[in-house]
Structures are given as structure tokens and as C-alpha cells.
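#structure-requests
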Amino acid sequence: MSTAPLQVPSAQAALKAAFDRYHVGWETRDAARIASLHSIDSVFLLHDGSPAVVGRENIRRHVEGLFETYPGLAFEPAHRTLFGDGRWVFDYTMVLGSADKTARVKMVDVVDVNAAGEVTRKEVFLDPAEAQAALAGAGLA
């Protein structure tokens, strides 16, 4: 009887799997799923001058608020996604609005993930002036 060596997924594959689970939550607008993938003391920081959101439950409520405020929230396919040591960088365009008025905002997420595959910190970078202009142009500001 031969035994094949146990194949353990690489750290890179585990990180990619965590990204896929997390991204599904955003694509399906499932705030509970998104929050469940954050660590209990996770930090969510949108670099637009607003304060950081700390803690899984606060993040859930924050994301629910985003979905309520922007019912047409969607994402264009990623420009690129980079995976590193316990971190992914997601470069994408967020789309807000309706069929007749749409705002497109370029964004970059830097997401830290612990060994358990939980998001411990998510920072969202954007150009606030560019975002404000895009939202105003679509009648969303």
C-alpha cells in the first residue's frame, strides 16, 4: 500500500480562497457574510476622511448602510488583484447609480488577513475629489 503525501494548500492558495469568499459577499451584497469573514476586532477604513470602523458587528452595520445608501452598488471587473504575505491588493472600479446616471470611482483595497483566513484590516483608497465629482455628476452627492 502506498501513501501519497498530504497536500497542504499553499499560503497563496489559502489567501486567494479567502479573497474569493470575501468578494462573493460584496458581489451578492451580503453584509452578514462580509462581516463574518472579518476578525472580531477588525478595522475597516475608507480613506475619505471618515473614521475607521472597528469590530465585526460595527463593520456589518457599516456595510449594510453602504448597501442602503447606494442600492446600485456594483463592481467592474478588477484591473488587477495582487496576493502577498498575508495580504491582498484589489484594484477595481466601483459603480454607483442607475441605468441613466452612473458614477464610476477607481478604488484600491489593501486587505490584511490572519492565519485563520479572517480579514483583520481593510483599507480602501480613492481620490476623494475625483469620487465626489463622479457622484455629483451622477446626482448621487
